[in-house]
Amino acid sequence: MAAITAQDVNKLRAMTGAGMMDCKKALTEADGDFEAARDILRKQGQKIADKRAENATAEGVVLVSVSEDGTTGKLVALACETEPVAKVEDFRKLAQQVLDSAVKSDAGTKEDLLAAKQEDGRSLQEHITDLMGKIGEKLDVVAYETLTAEKVASYIHSDNKKGVLVGLKNVGDANTNEVGRDVAMQIVAMKPVAVDKDGVDSATVEREIEIGKEQARAEGKPEAMLEKIAQGKLNKFYKENTLLNQEFVKDNSVTIAQLLDKTNKGMTVTDFKRVAIA
């Protein structure tokens, strides 16, 4: 049995970032073999990942990156189980690594992002699993979004748990920094389901019509009037739940569509991505 020194433990800590006692235990189990000890620590992370797979992840951090030309944005959310872990430096560094990897790899899906190779040749998921072993709770990339447009604006809420990308077109020579941020903040606050009514899926439309009919029927309205009443309620739903038709939260005398058009004639939103950890 190899003698495990404090220097050996510190060396493994520097290599893996794991705790002192975990490193000492792994080196003892591996009889001083550093690579074997690293494998043991990785397996420890996987055991925690398996054990806590069903645990809720309601804390974490959302990060955003917009390309220098302002046409492409990346939005990622790394979640954990508890608020203290979300504030740990290693967790924050991992979240930045997730975002950097998203930008570098230009992954098409979350699965592609997790499989992206890092500088040491291992996947991003392996790095996440390693930190699970060190921290002792579930970590998960719960969202990954990409948006490309003529101009992409972004916003991260003050709690760092909500973020938005919004795509604008027909921006002309307008400075979109302020209006883009305002629209992105609107999306965080008001949670629109689509850009405009044409973007609302048919299942949602049918559900809202049926709800409108049932409400009118419960109020004793004649059957012949139900469809018309339901359509009126549907139009109200569009006004309250589609971005361009919503009243601007900073000035309810204008809609988002009117706000954009006032900034530059014809300016509008092409798409948006909203991410939240909750």
Question: What is the compact description of this entry?
Answer:
48% of the residues lie in helices and 20% in strands.
List keywords for this structure.
278 residues; alpha+beta; 3-stranded antiparallel sheet
Topology, element by element:
Blueprint: H1 6-16, H2 20-29, H3 34-51, E1 59-66, E2 72-80, H4 83-86, H5 89-105, H6 110-115, H7 124-135, E3 140-148, E4 151-156, E5 162-169, H8 177-190, H9 202-218, H10 226-241, E6 247-248, E7 251-255, H11 256-263, E8 268-276
Antiparallel strand pairs: 1-2, 2-3, 4-5, 5-8, 6-7
Overview of this protein structure:
It is a single chain. The two termini are 49 Å apart. The protein is elongated. The strands form 3 sheets. Strands 1-2-3 form a 3-stranded antiparallel beta sheet. It contains 11 helices and 8 strands. The mean pLDDT is 91. A hairpin with a 5-residue loop joins β1 (59-66) and β2. α1 (6-16) packs across α2 and α3 crosses α7. The protein has helices spanning 6-16, 20-29, 34-51, 83-86, 89-105, 110-115, 124-135, 177-190, 202-218, 226-241, 256-263; strands spanning 59-66, 72-80, 140-148, 151-156, 162-169, 247-248, 251-255, 268-276. It has 278 residues and is of the alpha+beta class.
